[in-house]
């Protein structure tokens, strides 16, 4: 028998993190909001049952939230990040081959085993993570990553399995028939539209689809997903994530920004975040895209959205250089008289830091390597934002309010949970 | 941002930091003096002493005096290890009716109680109706003098 895969996924992860230090939230509907309290990004099962949708703007469900006394939290990423690391650490102690896939998911590769043994293994993983870290998880087993993902979904959605589900090697077509094609891992919204036009509505349809048709309409990635659904593994367990194609940093404002100076500050600090990521990956960017938009949910207000992309003569990883280009681009995009909700930057044309050739007609850029190394060291040691470019501003009125954020229970001595 | 009084926020806790003190392998009466490096066996790390299971260890702050008898004072920091099995006589963090509390666990002959270590606080008998869960086992008290 071939080796197989498991997917461990934390249940309603952000909500579970909030509940760990606030046990009174058990059984209550709870939601967590995105940066700036914009949208719903996590829901407890009770909140799901009320009909609160994933990604829904917060203001749209205010009435529902008030009527059912839903507990609302701003996102607390230091807390979620710390608990995520703990979950992955415990998992790593139990399983040798683990790929951390996202903040709340990890793939595991296992040797072939009988279903009963897998079930016992899954229950042990689940119980150990729950006891040691306090986060409930679900585990799904399947012959491929795509099928493990489906098994995990079943483990989560059907309570009778107790959070662990092993996809039977044969005869799971009925299970696949119950899953919409858009819910299959790797099938995005555009692809699922194409598939539906071709009469492919469920995971089972996709499994049985014609290879030539798939390759033509969904390229080789669609064919790969279909092959994985047939039980043939195409996606190996990779320990390192694939190299990044682009780095984006953008956030909605806590309150609308109308003046160019405010947008400057915000953009400059997003560039600083993106540039630090760039350097951490030892990359340089040859292209900077800047975009800004008003709040499209406020249809009565004048709307404006635009973006521009600047190619740099010389690829760089310098925060100061990148800010200079981004701010110049923003100057072209900006129109007065609008209430802006979001500005962002995407660094593209990424390449190895070593590729830069000195340019005959370009002066050597400001913010050289030594300065950036010092900047990163200071900010790693003392916390992001300790040292930053003046262009990023100091008061930052546009910055995220996060009025309902829980304390940094695990990352600040001043905010430890209190016991009576 | 950093010009405002919130500058205190730069005091971050780095979990990788190790506070190392020299440990001398021999007593001071060891006789003939030798080069110092012969004596230094290693460095002591408080994390090593107090945190056996990093992924399962959390810190909590105490409010109140119900556990004075166990040497736990108001405002102390407790080291809590969730991976340990809660048993009779252990000091535990329990969740009672949605609130976190530190108490001594009494667990014998089918009787389960949460005991304070202060005569002013009555014991709490746990029955099937009490909503109670043991959150973790307390392993150390950090008390500042």
Features:
heterodimer; A: 420 residues; alpha+beta; Alpha-Beta Plaits; DNA polymerase, domain 1; 3 domains; 5-stranded mixed β-sheet; 4-stranded antiparallel β-sheet; B: 145 residues; mainly beta; 7-stranded antiparallel β-sheet; two-stranded antiparallel ribbon; 1 helix; 3% helix; 39% strand; globular; disordered N terminus
Distance between the termini of chain B: 34 Å
User: How would you characterize the largest beta sheet of chain B?
Assistant: 7 strands, antiparallel
Helix/strand order of chain A: EHEEHHEHEEHEHEHHHHEHEEHEHE
CATH architecture of the largest domain in chain A: 2-Layer Sandwich
- Biggest sheet of chain B, strands in spatial order? 3-4-9-5-6-7-8
Distance linking N and C termini of chain A: 54 Å
Poorly predicted ranges of chain B: 1-30
Largest interface: A-B, 34 and 34 residues
Radius of gyration of chain A: 24 Å
Radius of gyration of chain B (CA) equals 21 Å
> How many alpha or pi helices of chain B?
1
Helix content of chain B: under 10%
Helix content of chain A: 25-40%
**DSSP strand count of chain B:** 9
Element-level helix/strand string of chain B:
EEHEEEEEEE
Q: What average pLDDT do the residues of chain B reach?
A: 79
Task: Describe the global form of chain A.
Answer: globular
What fold name goes in the CATH topology slot of the largest domain in chain A? Alpha-Beta Plaits
Instruction: Give the overall pLDDT of chain A as a whole number.
Output: 87
């Amino acid at each position: 028998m071939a080796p197989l895969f498991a997917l461990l996924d934390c249940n309603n992860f952000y909500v579970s993190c909030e509940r760990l230090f606030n046990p009174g939230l058990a059984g209550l509907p709870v939601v967590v909001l995105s940066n700036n309290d914009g949208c719903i990004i996590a829901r407890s099962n009770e909140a799901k049952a009320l009909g609160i949708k994933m990604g829904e703007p917060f203001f749209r469900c205010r009435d529902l939230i008030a009527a059912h006394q839903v507990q609302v939290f701003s996102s607390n990423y230091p807390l979620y990040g710390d608990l995520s690391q703990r979950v992955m650490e415990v998992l790593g102690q139990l399983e040798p081959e683990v790929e951390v896939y996202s903040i709340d998911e990890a793939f595991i590769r296992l040797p072939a085993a009988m279903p009963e043994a897998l079930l016992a293994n899954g229950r042990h993983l689940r119980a150990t993570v729950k006891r040691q870290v306090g986060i409930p998880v679900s585990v799904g087993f399947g012959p491929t990553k795509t099928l493990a993902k489906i098994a995990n979904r079943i483990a989560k959605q059907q309570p009778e399995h107790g959070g662990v589900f092993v996809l039977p090697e044969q005869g799971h077509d009925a299970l696949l028939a119950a899953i919409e094609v858009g819910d299959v891992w790797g099938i995005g919204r555009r692809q699922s539209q194409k598939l539906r036009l071709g009469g492919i509505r469920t995971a089972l349809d996709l499994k049985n689809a014609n290879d030539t048709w798939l390759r033509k309409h969904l390229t080789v990635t669609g064919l790969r997903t279909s092959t994985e659904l047939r039980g043939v593994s195409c996606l190996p367990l990779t320990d390192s994530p694939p190299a990044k194609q682009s780095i984006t940093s953008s956030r909605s404002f806590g309150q609308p920004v109308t003046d160019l100076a405010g947008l400057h500050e915000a953009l400059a600090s997003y560039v600083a975040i993106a540039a630090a990521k760039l350097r951490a990956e030892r990359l340089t960017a040859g292209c900077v895209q800047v975009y800004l938009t008003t709040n499209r949910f406020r249809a009565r207000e004048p709307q404006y959205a635009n973006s521009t992309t600047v190619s740099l003569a010389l690829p760089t990883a310098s925060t100061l250089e990148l800010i200079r280009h981004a701010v110049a681009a923003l100057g072209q995009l900006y129109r007065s008289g609008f209430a802006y909700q979001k500005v962002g930057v995407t660094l593209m044309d990424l390449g190895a830091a070593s590729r830069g050739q000195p340019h005959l007609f370009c002066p050597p850029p400001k913010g050289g390597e030594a300065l950036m190394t010092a900047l990163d060291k200071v900010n790693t040691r003392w916390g992001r934002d300790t040292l930053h470019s003046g262009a990023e501003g100091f008061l930052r009125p546009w910055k995220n309010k996060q009025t309902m954020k829980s304390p940094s229970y695990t990352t600040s001595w001043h905010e430890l949970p209190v016991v009576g | 941002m950093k010009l405002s009084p919130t500058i205190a926020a730069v005091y971050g806790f780095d979990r990788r930091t190790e506070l190392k003190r020299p440990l001398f392998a021999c007593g001071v009466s060891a006789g003939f003096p030798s080069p110092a490096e012969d004596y230094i066996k290693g460095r002591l790390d408080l994390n090593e002493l107090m945190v056996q299971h990093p992924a399962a260890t959390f810190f909590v702050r105490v409010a109140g005096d119900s556990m004075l008898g166990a040497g736990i004072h108001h405002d102390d920091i407790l080291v809590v290890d969730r991976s340990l099995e809660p048993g009779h006589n252990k000091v535990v963090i329990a969740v009672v009716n949605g609130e976190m509390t530190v108490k001594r666990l009494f667990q014998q002959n089918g009787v389960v109680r949460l005991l304070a270590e202060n005569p002013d606080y009555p014991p709490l008998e746990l029955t099937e109706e009490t909503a109670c869960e043991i959150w973790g086992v307390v392993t150390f008290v950090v008390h500042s003098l």
